[in-house]
Amino acid sequence: MSGCLFRIQYSDGRVEERPFVDGRFRIGRESGDVVLGDPSSSGTHGELAVNGALVTYTDLGSSNGSFDAQNRRLSGPTQLSAGQSVRLGTSVLTFIRPPSTPGVVGRTQAMPQQAGGFPPTQGMPQISAAMVAAGSGAAPSSGPHSHPEQSVRHSYPVAIQAAGFGDALGLLLKTMPFLLVRLGILSALTVAAIIYWVLLVGGYVFLAKATPLLGWAWIIALVFVAGGLWRFVGRYVLYLLKAAHIAVLTELITTGRIGNGSESMFQYGKRIVTERFGEVNVMFGLDMLIDGIVGAFNRTLDWVANLLPIPGLDSVMGVVRAVLRASTTYIDETIFSYNLARGDENVFRSSKDGLIYYAQNAKEVLKTGLWVVVLDKVLTAVIWIVMLAPAFVLTYFLPGAATFAALVFAALFAANVRSAFLRPLFLTMVMVRFHSLARNQPINLEWDQKLGSASSKFGELKQKAETWVRPARAPQPSPAAQLA
Predict the structure, then answer these.
(1) What does the pLDDT look like over 306-353, one tens digit per residue?
(2) How far apart are CA 93 and CA 38, in angstroms?
(3) pLDDT band for position 1 (50/70/90)?
(4) What is the number of other CB atoms lying within 10 angstroms of the CB of residue 479?
C-alpha cells in the first residue's frame, strides 16, 4: 500500500513529497515523525492521523497555532480532503492524494522552491471529501480517536494524572461561569414557577366565581398545555447548557486546555454543541435508554455491599441503593463525555462501547459512587443550614405570612444551589474516574453478553449501532476553491 501522499514545504524553501501509511504522526520543530526545523513552530506542533483515505490533522496546543488556506485557526481535529493545506508556523503541509490514486510509491522527492505562500494547485485532482471516502470503500464515520474495530476503542489523550476528589473539584472550579449561569437559569425558572402557580390558583378562583366550567378550563389549559411546554423547554435549554459544560469538561480532562486558547469556554461549548448538534440531540433521546441499561445491569451486581466501610450498613440506611442510583444518575452523562472525547459520529456505537467500559470497570466507578453519596449527604446539609439560617433569623422580625414566604424562598434557593453546584461536581467525579480507567484499556466483549442478558434495551442499542447510516453532508467546495 502506497499510503496518502503529502507535500511538505519547509520554512527554508525546501519542498518534498512523502507518503504516509495508516498511523499517527507527530509534527514538530525539532522532533517527531516530521521535523520541520521551523523556528515559528512548536516543539510538538501537531499530529497527522491517516486511516485509509481519511486524513485528520490536530493541533497539539502549539504556541502560534495551525491555520487553513483561508488563514483560519484550527481549534480542533480537522478532516482534510485532497488538495487542502495546513500552515504550521511558516511551513505548509498539503494533502495531495489518497492511497487509491496511482502515483508515487514510497519515495521522497525534492522539488523546486516555490515562491512564498501555499503551493499552487494547478493539475491537482478536484477530489471532494465524499469522493475520497468512495475511493477508500468506506465513509469516514469516525474521527482520529475512534477505533471501533480495534481492541482499544479509542486513542484520545487524558491530561489528568489522578482521579481523586481534588482533581474533580479543580476541574469544576475552572468552569465556574457555567455553574453561575446554571444557577441563574434555575433561579429564573423557580421564580417563573411561583408566578405560574399564582396564576393557576388565582385564575381558577377568579373564573370559578362566574362558572366552575371556566375555572376548570383554565386549570386544564395551564396544566396540560402550558405546563407540558414549560417542562420541555426548560429541560431542553438546561440540557443544551449541560451539553456545552460537559464538552468543556471533556476538553479539560483530555487535553488540559480549551481548544488552542483562542476561544472562551462559552464559545468553545457553543461551537461543539453547534457542530455536533445531531449527536447532542441523539444523546438527549438516549438518556432514558442508557439509564435503563445501567439500572438493569446494576441490579445484577451482588457485591456492592462489600464496598461499604461498615458491615450491615446497607440494611440500616439503604446505602447500596443510593450508590447504585448515583451511578445510574451520572453514567449517561459520562457516556456523552466519552462520545465527545472519542469523536465517533455513530453515537449508538460509541455509547454501546462506553457502556461496556462502564460494566468492566463497574467496581471502581461504584467506589466513586459511594463517595458521591457521602458527599451529597454532607454538602447538602451544609447548604440547607447556610440557606435556611438567615430565614429562621427573620422569623423574629417578620409577620407569619412573610416568615413562611422567606422559608419557602430559602428552601427553593437551597435546592437550586445544590442542583447548580453539587450535581456538576458529582458528575465531574464520575467522568474523571471513567476516563482515567478507560485510558488505553482493551475492551472486554464478555461484558457485551452480560449487558445483553441484563437488559433487552442493550440489544436495542446494538441494533441501532449496526443499522446507523451516516447522515448526508453538504457538498464540499473543491480544493481549488478552498485555496483561492
Answers:
(1) 666 655 555 545 666 777 777 678 898 999 999 999 988 889 999 999
(2) 13
(3) very low
(4) 24
Over residues 39-93, the pLDDT tens digits come to 888 888 999 999 888 999 999 888 888 988 877 888 888 999 888 899 998 899 9
Q: Give the whole-angstrom CA distance, residue 352 versus residue 358.
A: 10
Which has the higher per-residue pLDDT, 381 or 113? Answer: 381
By the 8 A CB rule, do 42 and 18 touch? no
Q: What are all long-range contacts of 233-239, with beta carbons under 8 Å and residues at least 24 apart?
A: 234/189, 236/284, 237/185, 238/182, 238/185, 238/186, 239/284
Side chain identity at 454, as an amino acid letter? Answer: A
DSSP 392-460: HHHTTTS-HHHHHHHHHHHHHHHHHHIIIIIHHHHHHHHHHHHHHHHTTPPP-THHHHHHHHH-HHHHH
**Cα(146)–Cα(453) distance, integer angstroms:** 26
Residue type, 42: S
